[in-house]
Write a structure and sequence with these properties.
Elements (H helix, E strand, L loop, with lengths): L2 H4 L4 E5 L3 H13 L3 E5 L2 H11 L3 E5 L7 H11 L5 E5 L4 H9 L4 E4 L4 H17 L14 E4 L2 E4 L4 E4 L2 E2 L4 H12 L5 E2 H9 L8 H13 L10 E4 L3 E4 L6
Parallel strand pairs: 1-2, 1-3, 3-4, 4-5
Antiparallel strand pairs: 6-7, 7-8, 8-9, 10-12, 11-12
Helix pairs in contact: 3-4, 7-9
């Protein structure tokens, strides 16, 4: 982790093959206090991360060699806590969900607002470097283990289990599950979940939250139509059920 991260910036790997996007974005990132390395292919991205350990990756999905989703999947497998922000022209919900499931922490669709991208990147870097592991600010201590039903979350180790099976979670999925389990039985509003799991200065819609809940349910083998774990409270938010329905 670079010293720049603690000052607000960080070492950012930009993976973008379009010069028309990469050049002005590199300038903007540097003006925002970041050190930027740019590569144009998925293969170069994998090699750069293996060699340089950046603080965050901005990853275009439309790359000329490897599909960006596959690059994201490989990066996440090798670096479980590396912040990855996807840049995509694939604006359909299915494509976005695929990217998130591959391990991206967040996404920005092209054409994007520069202020929004920079704000999301800064939030990712704060969570990864300037704040202690586990950004979630729920009442449970960060060294505690919380449990509801057969789902157990170890805050310090950032690991979670359903029964004896360890869950393979992205950083965002872990933070979301940790907050829900720590306050099992309480309805958590969409605004609170966005503020605590993502960032207090959220610019976009809550579709990202819906997608993460959807994939969290899948990893818990939960059914949205008849939930055992995560219930939707229409018009308000979500609740983790403290007891299994009978």
């Amino acid at each position: 982790m670079s010293d720049a991260t603690e000052a607000g910036g960080g070492q950012v790997l930009l993976v973008e093959d379009d010069d028309g996007i990469a050049t002005p974005l590199t300038v903007a990132l540097r003006r925002d206090g970041h050190q930027v390395r740019r590569v144009a292919t998925g293969g170069d991205a994998l090699a750069a991360v293996a060699a340089g350990s950046p603080d965050a990756v901005l990853l275009d999905l439309g790359l000329p060699d490897l599909d960006g989703v596959e690059v994201c999947r490989r990066l996440r497998a090798a670096h479980p806590t590396l912040p990855i922000l996807v840049l995509t022209a694939r604006a359909t919900e299915v494509d976005i969900v695929v990217g998130l499931d591959a391990g991206a922490d967040d996404y920005v669709t092209k054409p994007f607002r520069l202020a929004e991208l920079l704000a999301r990147l800064r939030a990712m870097l704060r969570r990864a470097g300037a704040e202690p592991p586990g950004n979630v600010t729920h009442p449970a201590r960060q060294d505690a283990t919380v449990q509801a039903q057969d789902v157990r979350v170890d805050m310090a180790a950032r690991r979670a289990w359903r029964g004896e099976r360890q869950l393979e979670l992205t950083p965002k999925e872990f933070d979301l599950l940790a907050l829900l389990v720590a306050e099992a039985g309480t309805v958590l509003s969409r605004d609170r979940l966005m503020e605590e799991v993502w960032d207090v200065n959220w610019y976009g819609s809550t579709k990202t939250l819906d997608m993460h809940v959807s994939w969290l349910r899948r990893k818990l083998d939960d059914d949205a139509a008849s939930p055992r774990y995560v219930s939707t409270v229409r018009g308000v938010g979500f609740r983790f059920e403290p007891e299994a329905p009978r």
